[in-house]
Specification:
- The chain has two domains: 159 residues, no CATH class; 103 residues, no CATH class.
- A hairpin with a 2-residue loop joins strand 9 and strand 10.
- The strands form four sheets. Strands 10-9-8-7-6-17 form a six-stranded mixed β-sheet, covered by helices on one side.
- By secondary structure, it is mainly β.
- The chain contains three helices and 18 strands.
Length: 276
């Protein structure tokens, strides 16, 4: 089996091209945690907040500082990972456990870093897809990034936005990339991608941050990508997903909305096998 080197991961890491009018930029997930209250969702009962000094859950909507900046090791603790049946802890999710539905809730709409290159980390995960017929070995390098607020189409807005794109290697050779948009991924062959040296470009739609291989208007006219915005070189601060201290947190990255799509998303550790 081909071994994917860290140098290959860095060489292929995408450059993200944001729309010139983009307001909500990438941010470090640890900063999002620091700016958030950690809350427990209780159906038909007032939600609880975790008080870090008293070290207990309280039925309260208090904005006191003791409810913010909860230690990441607590959030990533066993009570807030997948349960014994493989159910997550995200409210409004059809795959959520009946117990300990939790969410991170910042005060507002975090705008992230205006110039994220070298400042904000992106994360990678090498997904070994195995052998296809005719001994073709296909591997994916997933690149994940976090944005504090999704300002998408009408009522689909939500706090927290995990996005990704994947480099595709056939027998160790880069042949194209999967671009992720609205929970679905589309394969784009190498000839259809734009590059800066060895780095493919993912054009991020204004507000929704969905990824596309070119500039233009997509997704029934709701997604618009363009040049001349901020360029984020993800290879300048790229970290392995499997070593992140928050990776097994299985609750929502953002407040609870009216429906699943307006509730903060699940983190990438639990999405890395769900699609491309």
């Amino acid at each position: 089996m081909t071994t994917i080197s860290k140098q290959t991961v860095l060489d292929l890491a995408p450059i993200l091209m944001f729309h010139p009018q983009e307001v909500y930029m990438p941010m470090d997930p640890l900063k999002f945690i620091k700016k958030s209250r950690f809350r427990r969702h209780l159906v038909s009962i007032r939600d609880q907040g975790y008080h870090k000094v008293q070290k207990k859950w309280k039925t309260s909507n208090s904005q006191h500082s003791n409810y913010y900046d909860i230690p990441v090791e607590f959030i990533n603790g066993k009570n807030f990972r997948l349960d014994g049946n493989g159910k997550n802890r995200r409210p409004k999710d059809p795959d959520s456990s009946d117990k300990w539905q939790v969410f991170l809730q910042p005060k507002d709409k975090p705008k992230g870093a205006a110039q994220p290159t070298g400042v904000v980390p992106a994360f990678y995960y090498v997904r070994k897809s195995g052998l296809e017929p005719n001994s073709r070995e296909v591997d994916l390098i997933q690149y994940w990034w976090f944005i504090g607020y999704n300002d998408g189409f009408l009522s689909q807005n939500h706090q927290g936005d995990w996005e990704h794109a994947s480099a595709v290697l056939l027998n160790g050779t880069f042949i194209g990339a999967f671009m992720s948009a609205h929970g679905k991924s589309k394969f784009c062959p190498q000839k259809d991608l734009d590059f800066v040296q060895s780095h493919f470009i993912a054009y991020c739609a204004k507000g929704s941050h969905a990824s596309y291989p070119k500039t233009g208007t997509f997704h029934f006219g709701t997604d618009v990508t363009a040049k001349n915005g901020v360029e984020w070189q993800t290879n300048k601060n790229l970290k392995p997903l499997e070593s992140q201290p928050w990776k097994e947190y299985a609750g929502a990255w953002g407040e609870v909305g009216q429906i699943k799509d307006t509730t903060g998303p699940l983190g990438p550790w639990y999405k890395r096998w769900s699609d491309n």
